[in-house]
Amino acid sequence: MTAPDPTVAELSEGEILSRILGRIGPSGALIGPGDDAAVLSTPDGRVVATVDTLVHGPDFRLAWSGAADLGFKAAAVNLADIAAMGARPTALLVALAMPEDTRLSFVEGFAQGLRAGCAELAPGCAVEGGDLTVSETLTIAVTALGVLDGRAPVLRGGARPGDVVAIAGDAGHAAEGLRILFERFRDATGTPIPVDRDALSERERDAVDAQLRPHPPIGLGPVAAIAGATAMMDVSDGLAMDARRMATASGVSIDLHAGALGPDLDRALTGGEDHALLACFPRADLPAGFRPIGAVRADAGAPLLVDGEPFDRRGGWDPYADWDEQRG
Amino acid sequence: MTAPDPTVAELSEGEILSRILGRIGPSGALIGPGDDAAVLSTPDGRVVATVDTLVHGPDFRLAWSGAADLGFKAAAVNLADIAAMGARPTALLVALAMPEDTRLSFVEGFAQGLRAGCAELAPGCAVEGGDLTVSETLTIAVTALGVLDGRAPVLRGGARPGDVVAIAGDAGHAAEGLRILFERFRDATGTPIPVDRDALSERERDAVDAQLRPHPPIGLGPVAAIAGATAMMDVSDGLAMDARRMATASGVSIDLHAGALGPDLDRALTGGEDHALLACFPRADLPAGFRPIGAVRADAGAPLLVDGEPFDRRGGWDPYADWDEQRG
């Protein structure tokens, strides 16, 4: 007899899969989960594909993130990379490596979070395949696939002098949430403790939610493409670092307006993990959801300027440099 | 100044990526590595997609597997899932999570192994995207994508009574290699030690190679599809377990001929990780590379028979049940 909430070590892979498959929602694929591979429709003869990994420790703490939060975030961060190409996400493949003592309820909650992330952020996208294995370190690798509906992909290297630089989504909000978690929800030894949401103001709750359960504007990726975006990328490592990458790829300088970046300029420039869409448009009439934050200039000797001055401080999240041994 | 062989913690993600990108070979994609996502051609409007994970500990030991072996195996096991659909692999996306003290030379060797795996097993397939992150547990999640070139996918549920059951590739060879590694290349405490190839017979070397650097018959997946295979799957968990899955999905019984499975029947039936292709054909004239090993029967009350007798022993690799704490 199995316990009411058995560990994954007490179950076969088939038993765990059957519990997951009931929770990820209907397949939209030609061939969905259950065979050696999924078969997905790509009507215009192209598929967009990306992979990203969340690792227990550097990327999340279980005291702060519930299983459903993790599933939601794992979906969101990968959907954002598809959207940043101007594409519409159609499928996720999820590789979940977990410790033997992981409870079935965790796997079920994680699957529900994946489903909720797809439903809220990218309707029509579903989990169409995956892999379960054991590991001492809980690791979530998600591959997202999408389609371009006949459009050209929007690359990061297409920004042209004179373009308006715009953003959809937050900059610095998720980092503010992480700061709140580190400052307020650790015990005396530094170990993460559960979040007491009642102890947070509404603004603080929003920031913590942006960190634990981000809602990047997935639907605005295709909108930007249709509106003629010349360049676009997902802001995962902080606005400064990612704008610099875009400028370098495009052979231009990006000049951000400090006044457009809110009261905490440093956090807006260096805070990562918001998964906002950074895009350049040739015209000032931006599509709804995007707001102007700067202008593209001919190469001014530095890839990134703020109010005309070179901004070369390191900023944003570098997984190697920012690795923190503290688990939880 | 960085050391001659720095750790990944001493380098930026961009520095590591630049070393990898020089080693994975030319991109065959519309948009290859370097943007938010890759864009791949899918000329017939469908893409085949699968993901599989290798975890340090349960799936490999670093004393036995070199970096290039690991890259090769990570490619091979995922290419096999694409081939098992009757598809031709076109791209890999590789998520590599590694400890901070991992040497750059390891990452470079791993990339070279990925490239060699694609070149030897699936020419035209390349690494088109990926993700690097830190983890206490070295973890490799590979997504493989492929195309069907206008054909229907070959599913595991299509076997029909009267079909010939056939296999391309080995059954039990990789398990024999694992047995040799466990018996001969561990020290007195059970810790894995490097393989001394000179101490092995040619047959033993082949078995160890089948475990560490498998060569599944990727090109025979499309060949089987063209030849009219009614069902096909990748034998990753042992012939008995996977044949049972095929029979159950098809609503039939599969009757294997013991005489066709070599001198060690038990190893052939239960040894996993060979990634052979198990396929059913309506005719006895099999395509080159496949050999007959049995017949499909109407449901005989058990999914798997051997010489007409039900075979219901558990066999093959179950990652949960077979987890072994011993690292190396």
From TrEMBL, chains A, B:
<keyword id="KW-0479">Metal-binding</keyword>
<protein>
    <recommendedName>
        <fullName>Thiamine-monophosphate kinase</fullName>
        <ecNumber>2.7.4.16</ecNumber>
    </recommendedName>
</protein>
<feature type="binding site">
    <location>
        <position position="59"/>
    </location>
    <ligand>
        <name>substrate</name>
    </ligand>
</feature>
<dbReference type="GO" id="GO:0009030">
    <property type="term" value="F:thiamine-phosphate kinase activity"/>
</dbReference>
<keyword id="KW-0784">Thiamine biosynthesis</keyword>
<feature type="binding site">
    <location>
        <position position="52"/>
    </location>
    <ligand>
        <name>Mg(2+) 1</name>
    </ligand>
</feature>
<feature type="binding site">
    <location>
        <position position="52"/>
    </location>
    <ligand>
        <name>Mg(2+) 2</name>
    </ligand>
</feature>
<keyword id="KW-0460">Magnesium</keyword>
<dbReference type="InterPro" id="IPR006283">
    <property type="entry name" value="ThiL-like"/>
</dbReference>
<feature type="binding site">
    <location>
        <position position="234"/>
    </location>
    <ligand>
        <name>Mg(2+) 3</name>
    </ligand>
</feature>
<keyword id="KW-0067">ATP-binding</keyword>
<keyword id="KW-0808">Transferase</keyword>
<feature type="binding site">
    <location>
        <position position="36"/>
    </location>
    <ligand>
        <name>Mg(2+) 4</name>
    </ligand>
</feature>
<feature type="binding site">
    <location>
        <position position="273"/>
    </location>
    <ligand>
        <name>substrate</name>
    </ligand>
</feature>
<feature type="binding site">
    <location>
        <position position="317"/>
    </location>
    <ligand>
        <name>substrate</name>
    </ligand>
</feature>
<feature type="binding site">
    <location>
        <position position="131"/>
    </location>
    <ligand>
        <name>Mg(2+) 1</name>
    </ligand>
</feature>
<feature type="binding site">
    <location>
        <position position="237"/>
    </location>
    <ligand>
        <name>Mg(2+) 5</name>
    </ligand>
</feature>
<feature type="binding site">
    <location>
        <position position="81"/>
    </location>
    <ligand>
        <name>Mg(2+) 4</name>
    </ligand>
</feature>
<feature type="binding site">
    <location>
        <position position="81"/>
    </location>
    <ligand>
        <name>Mg(2+) 3</name>
    </ligand>
</feature>
<feature type="binding site">
    <location>
        <position position="50"/>
    </location>
    <ligand>
        <name>Mg(2+) 4</name>
    </ligand>
</feature>
<feature type="binding site">
    <location>
        <begin position="130"/>
        <end position="131"/>
    </location>
    <ligand>
        <name>ATP</name>
    </ligand>
</feature>
<comment type="similarity">
    <text>Belongs to the thiamine-monophosphate kinase family.</text>
</comment>
<dbReference type="Pfam" id="PF00586">
    <property type="entry name" value="AIRS"/>
</dbReference>
<feature type="binding site">
    <location>
        <position position="81"/>
    </location>
    <ligand>
        <name>Mg(2+) 2</name>
    </ligand>
</feature>
<dbReference type="InterPro" id="IPR036676">
    <property type="entry name" value="PurM-like_C_sf"/>
</dbReference>
<dbReference type="InterPro" id="IPR016188">
    <property type="entry name" value="PurM-like_N"/>
</dbReference>
<dbReference type="InterPro" id="IPR036921">
    <property type="entry name" value="PurM-like_N_sf"/>
</dbReference>
<feature type="binding site">
    <location>
        <position position="156"/>
    </location>
    <ligand>
        <name>ATP</name>
    </ligand>
</feature>
<feature type="binding site">
    <location>
        <position position="36"/>
    </location>
    <ligand>
        <name>Mg(2+) 3</name>
    </ligand>
</feature>
<keyword id="KW-0547">Nucleotide-binding</keyword>
<feature type="binding site">
    <location>
        <position position="236"/>
    </location>
    <ligand>
        <name>ATP</name>
    </ligand>
</feature>
<comment type="pathway">
    <text>Cofactor biosynthesis; thiamine diphosphate biosynthesis; thiamine diphosphate from thiamine phosphate: step 1/1.</text>
</comment>
<comment type="function">
    <text>Catalyzes the ATP-dependent phosphorylation of thiamine-monophosphate (TMP) to form thiamine-pyrophosphate (TPP), the active form of vitamin B1.</text>
</comment>
<keyword id="KW-0418">Kinase</keyword>
<feature type="domain" description="PurM-like N-terminal">
    <location>
        <begin position="34"/>
        <end position="147"/>
    </location>
</feature>
